[in-house]
Amino acid sequence: MTEASGPGLPPWSAIHGRRRALERRWPSIFSLPLARRSSDLVLAAVAPGMRVLEVGAGDRRLAPRIAAAAPGAEYRSVDPDPAHPHDWPDLALAAGPFDLVFALEFIEHLGAEEALEFLVRARGLLRPGGRIVLSTPDVFTPGRWHRDAGHRTPFSPWELGAFLEEAGFRLDSLHRAWNAPLLPRLARTWLLGWFHRLVGSDYAASVVAVASRPA
């Protein structure tokens, strides 16, 4: 890739520099703590009375879980699919501000320029101090990326963090997410953990980034 930027991207040297800094902070994919579900990190960020926006909400399955975890939270959704009753078909139409924006398995369906534009727009919808939670397929897990023909941009955790920082967020944490029964979980993490580290091949389903809009 050349040093010149596209119309919606900064020079690639800027993103590369941010990525290198994050690689020093988390030197390998196995440096990221393992959560059970991406949605657990969303629910951990929700508090009663918050305004919450889900982008790429699909069937809005997290709405009842958010209502149960945070009474009085106001859940809104963005998705162009007319099969479900979303509040807006496009993020450009969403009415902020929000305390939390989250998008699970969404950003990889965008091109690089579109992804940065999405993050900048999401930042503009957040109150100062508000948070964003993003998940994307773990590109270190064999076959995970190739399961969906709609995937366009493979984000490593460091690339995802660099894009968030370039959009004006403060990156708070990076995680891996993998929901599995107890025995397979123990086998992967304890018995075969050394093998995965040796070959650099992960087993987690997703990478999750949590970031904040600076106050």
How would you describe this structure to a colleague?
With 215 residues, the chain is an alpha/beta fold. It has a single domain, classed as 3-Layer(aba) Sandwich (Rossmann fold). It is 33% helix and 21% strand. It has seven helices and seven strands. The protein has helices spanning 12-25, 38-45, 63-69, 112-125, 157-166, 182-191, 193-199; strands at residues 34-35, 51-55, 74-78, 98-104, 126-137, 170-177, 206-212. It has a seven-stranded mixed beta sheet with strand order 1-6-7-5-4-2-3. Helix 4 (112-125) links the parallel strand 4 (98-104) and strand 5. The radius of gyration is 17 Å and the shape is globular. Mean pLDDT is 90; it is low at 1-7.
Brief summary of the model shown:
The chain has 215 residues and is an alpha/beta fold. Helices cover 33% and strands 21% of the residues. The chain has a single domain (12-212), classed as Vaccinia Virus protein VP39 (Rossmann fold, 3-Layer(aba) Sandwich), CATH 3.40.50.150.
Task: Classify the beta-strand content into a percent band.
Answer: 15-25%
In DSSP terms (H or I, runs of 4 or more residues), the helix count works out at: 7
Mean pLDDT: 90
How would you sum up the global shape?
Answer: globular
Per CATH, the architecture is 3-Layer(aba) Sandwich
Share of helical residues: 25-40%
Largest sheet: 7 strands, mixed
